[in-house]
Amino acid sequence: MNLFKLVWAFIRRRPLTWAFNVLTLSTGVALVLALVLVSQALDNRFRRDLADIDLVIGAKGSPLQIVLSAVFQMDTPTGNISLAEAERFTRSALVSRAVPVSMGDNVQGARIVGTTLDYPKLYGAELAAGRWWGQPMEAVLGASVAQRLGLHPGQSFVGAHGLVGSADLHRRFPYRVVGVLKPTGAVVDRLVLTDLGSVWQVHEHPDADERATDPNRREVTALLVKYRSAMGALMMPRLVAAVPDLQPAIPAIESARLFSLLGVGAEVLQGVGAAILGLAAIGFFIALFGAVSQRRRDLALLRALGARPSLLLMIVALESALLGLAGGLIGVAAGRALAAYAGHVSMAAASGPTLIPPPAGAIDLAAIGAALALALVASIGPAVIAARTDPARELAGA
After folding, report:
1. What is the pLDDT, as a whole number, of residue 210?
2. For residue 164, is pLDDT > 90?
3. Where are the chain's structural domains?
4. What would you report as the CA-atom Rg of the chain, rounded to the nearest whole angstrom?
5. To the nearest whole number, what is the mean pLDDT of the chain?
6. Could you give the angle at which helices 309-348 and 296-304 cross, rounded to 10 degrees?
7. How far is Cα 339 from Cα 37, in angstroms, rounded to an integer?
């Protein structure tokens, strides 16, 4: 007796019922897996963007906003800080590296960041083409920006005022692309990097205020700091907070706060996915129970022909296992597709983090195993009923 052919014959008797149950199970698996993949991708991306930044010094305001704007490039800055004050902390014995960043313009939604060559080093960025900037109004494009805008070394573009798309273009101050970076999987991929002098030059026009035009009163948006030792973590935030116009922001603390905020929504959606999986298990139980009830004569005939109770139990368990496996495989494929779509959408967004789901591996096997386990658990009751089929009583009532 071919057990698989027999089970397949039973499944074909109720194709719509089983198709619906497999769809329900695969939907739950897909939703939970997609959420886990996106959460992992977001966590990996944020950790990558944090690099070795221990402290961000910005203008007074929300520390979370400072970190979001200066590190993750996902929010508007709280303001500018004095370059002279920033350089004072740069020279501190507690600091091993301090990278200034100056923002305020964009090109088609991609932020133009004035900084030093130390900034791309934070993310191990390497050139894919061209060279690094050597003077103001030269720009190096992140990989995602270059691909989205279709710009190459030697071409020019003009920036727009603000951090999102704007019609207020700085046409008098075109940038020249001198380099394009290799993909890093970090925030630098979606930025346009240039010299600090570029930002000052663009805004130093006759209509600018005294603060912008006076070289001694120039400003930057923030300072990204790495401590020289553990002593820096104890003293630097206090020293910064003591300056009236400055605000210290610790990326590790603020990112943990951000994860906790994002985690609430993710937990709710994962709960919905788990509920769908629970409903799928109940659906499998009801469907199998009904199927066993309808097959009593067939099962009794098998018993009369010499089939052992264990064989009947195996038939029901195998049927459930095959359907659970199908639901798991379809769910994993759908979950991967959803996560990939989320990554595609994030790549299309100029201001959002690019999400790269982790490669297939243990988590996919775990999802398939969970679907299989749910189906098998749901089959226990019906399988026991099938194994206890009394051929004499069932056939006598035929």
Report:
1. 47
2. no
3. 3-46+261-396, 55-249
4. 31
5. 82
6. 130
7. 6
